[in-house]
Write a structure and sequence with these properties.
By secondary structure, the chain is mainly beta. The protein is built from two helices and six strands; from the N terminus they run ββββαββα. Helices cover about 10% and strands about 45% of the residues.
Length: about 150
Amino acid sequence: MNHVVLVGRLTRDPELRYIAGSGTPVANFAIAVDREFSGKDGKKETDFIDIQVWGKSAENCANYIGKGSLVAIQGSIRIDSYQNQAGETRRVTRVNANRVQFLDTKNKSESSYKGNHQGFEPNFEPSFEPKGLDPQGFQAIDDDDIPF
């Protein structure tokens, strides 16, 4: 069984390209995933994992997530071989993503990393206005109305 589930943040914006001939979209990016344990120095170590996404999901990744975005990836490990210009065989290990879930958006992650929350103003408006309250929203209760 070859099944991988990862949660991490993008280390760069997705690179979208289209396969010549078929026009199939492919997006490549990497995510940073913290290990569950700390090293001898007490610091958590981080793995940087290459991700490849195909089809409509690739286009969605390019449009809606960017560097710093938190994502969940579900897919399988794939090892590809190729020969470089010197004729040496090289191997590349990556996760071929079947599913990418956006845990925050491109704009949200950009603003949170810059420490700038401009454009975010909570807007609360009560859905009803109770009758018989004073301007501060309190109503006097007689001691005989309290059941204890």
